[in-house]
Amino acid sequence: MVSDTKYLRNIGISAHIDSGKTTLTERILFYTKRIFAVHEVRGKDGIGAKMDSMELEKERGITISSAATHCQWKEHNINIIDTPGHVDFTIEVERALRVLDGSILVLCAVGGVQSQSITVDRQMNRNHIPRMAFINKCDRAGSDPYRVVDQLRKRLNHNAILMQTPIGLEGNFSGVIDLISMKAFYFKEPFGETIKIESIPPSLVNEAMEKREELLDAAAMFSDELTEAILEDRVTEDLIHEAIRKGTIARELTPVFIGSAYKNIGVQPLLDGIIHYMPSPIDIENLALDIDQEEKTISLTSESNAPLVALAFKLEVSPYGQLTYLRIYQGSIEKGDTIMNTRNKNKIKVGRLAKMHADEMEEISKANAGDIVALFGVDCFSGDTFTDGSLNYALKSMVVPEPVISLKISAKDNKSSNNVAKALNRFVREDPTFTSRVDEESGQTIISGMGELHLEIYVERMKREFGVQVETGIPQVAYRETISGKAEFNYVHKKQTGGAGQYGKVAGFMEPLEEGHYEFINQIKGGVIPTEYIPAVDKGFQSCLKKGILIGFPVLGIKITVNDGQYHPVDSSEKAFSQAAVGAFKQAYLKAKPIILEPIMKISIECPSEFQGNVMSSINQRRGTIISSAEDGIFTAVEAEVPLAEMFGYATVLRSLTQGKAEFTMEFTKYLKIPKSLEDELIAKHKKA
Amino acid sequence: MEKYLNISPLKILEKSNYKELGKGNLGVVISRAGVGKTSCLIHVALDRLFKKGKVIHVSLKDTPEKVISYYNFIYVDVFNYLNLENEQEAKDFLDKNKIILAYLKESFGIDKLSQNLKNLAENISFKPDTVIIDGFDFEGSGRNIFEKFKEMANEFQVEIWFSALSHRHINKVNERGIPFPCSDLDDLFKLIIQLQPTQEGLFLKLLKDNNIKISPDCIVKLNPDNFFAAE
């Protein structure tokens, strides 16, 4: 196996649903001899394409989870991350994009650049990922690769350049003309493994010459040497490759290939394109955060002899046990090595190490910088960073936002009930922003996450992957309570019911805390409350923060100062002082002008500029505040802050407002006081319940 | 929050005849590169916001994130000066009344801005009192563009403040004392202010006050760290 990092490619294959990317992946695996037969996504043989390893994907014919697979082509190692194409699973896409060095944007020669292609391309742009395009399905009626190239230029602002022209189209599509070698490529039946290279058919020579000129003009922008060679008429294939590679890696050029994966046409030239134009890990700058230096940004090297830095980007339960997919950014991992999880400083001995090929695995003994590998039985969360222990780096910020939305779930039957815990345990490990707990009072299971869609995906996965039939409640916003004024307390807890009594008195005040959730100040002087009871007082107050008195949500932003009290030599105890604190809290809380806070989400919407008005209006209707709007020619990105409570069902609304051409992301930004009318409504509802 | 007006750079206008730019009019802050036009314009915005007005900040060079970070930077100094009890509340108030519009990759056009102002008025009832346009290319734009801006200011009943970049090597000044690049356009601007770094400090000087003679004391010294006007 070739181990040099410069011969490695980590690429994704992203596209709109039904543009044929899974079929394309399957063909790539076939031609690279990773598989020896081909199946279809919705194949009649019931086997399904290789990359669709989850049941749900197989059923729907779409790819939800980003399985990684490895193959080799002409002395190069290629890791393929199969990214989801459905609009509702963009969380998965974003996660997969983190580990890619380049990507193939698959487009349908009939449908062209569709809304989801736009979404996926914008995501790649945000992640600074160089792209190539593959215009698939040139054999279909109505196919027009030239129109799609035009759309790439106009709709996606790509400097898209055709690397090939088609030989025939629709039913007559039989091969491609390579504009660099100026030869015609035909792919022989039954599966196109044999390529017959011939002269360009005379009727297509003029068109090919014209398109080659365009290609050379575009490539020459990135190489003075090529420009000179063109002028002196001594252009070589290597010079063209080099210039195109430079432009592609700089994300200023998008080479476009054409073909039909289903008809086995044009896949091998695309593979050649991947090794010619996609970056190797050493062409990309990767950054980490140094935890010891307040998350200062550090540039990583792609050297295998440097200290290890790797990211666990996906966890998966497979027939072989728990798998953790790692992308190694720096250093290497060898079987038997000890590696450290920088989140919890846990040290792990590397047992089995493997390269994955969808559901099949190949054990290896060592993996180097740039590689994507799977480890077995590693206890970690998705997003954790591993080092050799000498570095304390994180590849993403260690700050995990608190969940802002909750959903009650209950199993429909006994069998499901057993699997719920198993499913939740796995999801919690995969995704640090997803949590689950059992409500003490109702005994119901409550799952929490970062948005409605986020939770819906997990409910769906529970059903599909674990056979769990669950009923869900209405999504519940994670409100918070706080106080807006200062109030004093002076409370005596006294109980005499035979035997030893209970006595404790606490006095002091509560006031709003600007930063942080809770602060306890002990100003007791002269031992009026003995030191050994002070922690019990603190604990008593803290127990009250779990459930506020207004609407039963956690209380935050509160500072409690205890400055007086009294104890009884016989009847005082930790329990008595803890109870006294609870009584004191209740006594003062309502006097301290409690208010309800709601989570405010920062939402970013990207849409074609003509929909800006509609989008702004939809934000306004949701009590939102527009922060900014930025145009870059075709697209407008609107940033706004909107209460989470108003965002339920927004994905559907946005789709209908923008003909499905907008995408939005949402993240928690802060808690803010809710308007009085809503506060009254919530309090009334709580009282009723 | 009225205390802000003590340190607002726009207190230079207290010495002017009209005290403010006013709706339907154009104003401009001229200075060389790197002196602080953007900071000065942000104070123009804050002046309006603290007077309970609404502002649109148009950026033609920086992304919204960058503009927001400029504002946040200035908020820190302003809030410290005001010694506010609840800074978050103040920030929320200012943010609610201000929208940033960025036109990147040369995507700006007057028609687009006009359409966006309409969108904001119609869809979210946001009608600005002041529009700040930062980074507009005065040298590459003809007189007719500014005539259109003037029409726009009238149509939407807003005052529009620009920043204009002057050059050390171009000393052109018209007979009315207005420097390049505004020397051929000054009739279209009601107020022209120049940001002047000198050995004695940073000054804001009123160069044009409608067509009225300017008194020599129409000058305000600014703190170069925070652009606060000397009290």
Structure description:
Chain A folds into five domains: 5-204 and 254-283, P-loop containing nucleotide triphosphate hydrolases (Rossmann fold), CATH 3.40.50.300; 287-394, Translation factors (Elongation Factor Tu (Ef-tu), domain 3, Beta Barrel); 405-476, Alpha-Beta Plaits; 481-592, Ribosomal Protein S5, domain 2 (2-Layer Sandwich), CATH 3.30.230; 596-687, 2-Layer Sandwich (Alpha-Beta Plaits). The termini of chain A are far apart. Residues 41-48, 50-66 and 85-90 of chain A have low confidence and may be disordered. In chain A, strand 14 (309-318) and strand 15 (321-330) form a beta hairpin. Chain A is α+β, with helices and mostly antiparallel strands and 689 residues long. Chain A has 16 helices and 38 strands. In chain A, the strands form eight sheets. Chain A has an eight-stranded antiparallel sheet. By secondary structure, chain B is of the alpha/beta class. Chain B has one domain: Rossmann fold (3-Layer(aba) Sandwich), CATH 3.40.50.300. Helix content of chain B is 31%, strand content 23%. In chain B, strands 3-2-4-5-1-6-7-8 form an eight-stranded mixed sheet. In chain B, a hairpin with a 2-residue loop joins strand 6 and strand 7. The model of chain B has no long low-confidence stretch (mean pLDDT 90). Classes of the chains: A alpha+beta (689), B alpha/beta (231). The interface between A and B is medium-sized, with 21 and 27 residues. Strand 36 of chain A pairs parallel with strand 3 (98-103) of chain B, so a sheet runs across the interface.
Q: How would you concisely characterize the structure shown here?
A:
The complex is a heterodimer of chains A (689) and B (231). Chain A is α+β, with helices and mostly antiparallel strands. In chain A, 28% of the residues lie in helices and 32% in strands.
Key descriptive features of the protein:
heterodimer, A: 689 residues, alpha+beta, Rossmann fold, Elongation Factor Tu (Ef-tu), domain 3, Alpha-Beta Plaits, eight-stranded antiparallel beta sheet, 38 strands, B: 231 residues, alpha/beta, eight-stranded mixed beta sheet, 5 helices, 8 strands, globular
